[in-house]
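note to self: dont lose this again. the chain is below, predicted strucutre after it. 478 aa total, dont forget to put it in the shared folder this time
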Amino acid sequence: MYDIIIIGSGVSGAACARELSRYEAKICVLEKEEDVCCGTSKANSAIVHAGYDAPAGSLKAKLNVEGNEKMEQLARDLDFPFRRCGSFVICRDETEMPALRELYDRGIKNGVKGLRILNRTETLAMEPNVTDQVFAALYAPGAGIVCPFGMNIALAENACENGVEFYFDTEVRDIRRTEDGYELMTNKGVFRSEYIVNAAGVYADRIHNMASARKIHITPRRGEYCLLDKSAGAHVTRTIFTLPDKNGKGVLVTPTVHGNLLIGPTAVDIEDKEGTNTTREGLEQVIAKAGRSVKNLPVRQVITSFAGLRAHEDNGEFIIGEAKDAKGFIDCAGIESPGLTACPAVGEMVAGILKEKMGLREKEKFIAKRKGILNPNTLSKEERADLIRENPAYGNIICRCEMITEGEIIDAVRRPLGAKSLDGVKRRTRAGMGRCQSGFCSPRTMEILARERRVSMSEITKSGGDSRIVVGTNKDTL
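---
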């Protein structure tokens, strides 16, 4: 029996868990995948939006601006990468100026600071690789870029350190109302709780509809991306947007906090809530549209492509609050863009609702700070030499593309909510995210995982479930 059960461990669920862990309550998180950050939170633009896009007065607009303002301090407290690089929205001719001015006016109403409309000369002076057809640009200095994996994992680890329990590979299949709360039927048995927080991403409608007669509907909106090598990472220094349309903010070109260049996404509504496949048509569209805002894109430097799903609710708004006909059931649904930006404020809002309803008391000792995995590349030569003398694993390079050591991979496995799969290691250390896309390092990473977890190599997976890599052998001989 728990006081609060959170369903889902993406950035929204993890942010709720972290904020609620400030209080005296028995809390757990149920996640149907093998790790945190396995859904929308792992495949997105990694942008911290300024806040001019959402309609004035909307919950999206409010939480976007609040989340943006909280991001810098949160990144310092929880030690994940974040950089305030600024963004442009490109206007190509005078006919598009009314739409650009509308974005500016909306941003001012939303409380976005420092917005300016730049002319062609000013725009090209700041970003020489923007298209020669540029007429003007909306400049938002407060926009930024973040590591979505690092942020999600940091929130979850900090919640875990503060007493929140996490159950993975645990899928909620039904919810029943009881006299004192809810019973959640899962593939791992029955969990009971007085309160539920529904942060299930593209599945949040299914979870909501188990508890409430007032149905909601979420459409998975697929976005396809291309990731370019670090040799292309300085092609632009800010996030470059096109003017948005009814399906989103359009195709962007942006640096990443790790030095790559990212272009995308498309916006295609689909039915399959697991439909994260890429398509030739979608990737060709990404490259063509990105080329309309940024010239000379080095597309031959693409090292991988991927797709993510946004949880688009029919009304296009965040749904945060208690369901009217399901006491104690708190929705955190429809969290599409700018959900990554808004999640610090989303977590605070959900925690505030439950604090008031439950009369929660703050803990005397809340662990507010968290230190990430040690990166030897950030040390001086002398410090690194001392580290390697103390622990030679930090001198054994496993991933040559990203220069990730055995010591870092061991840390990733041994941490709270440690990595159990190749993708889990990748999201925590970047081993396998470089130019060769794990072609060199995956066997050694598997060996370390098997050794640290004390399992056979045949039990190591790419991403949990049935995604085993070593098959067709006698596992006892491995």
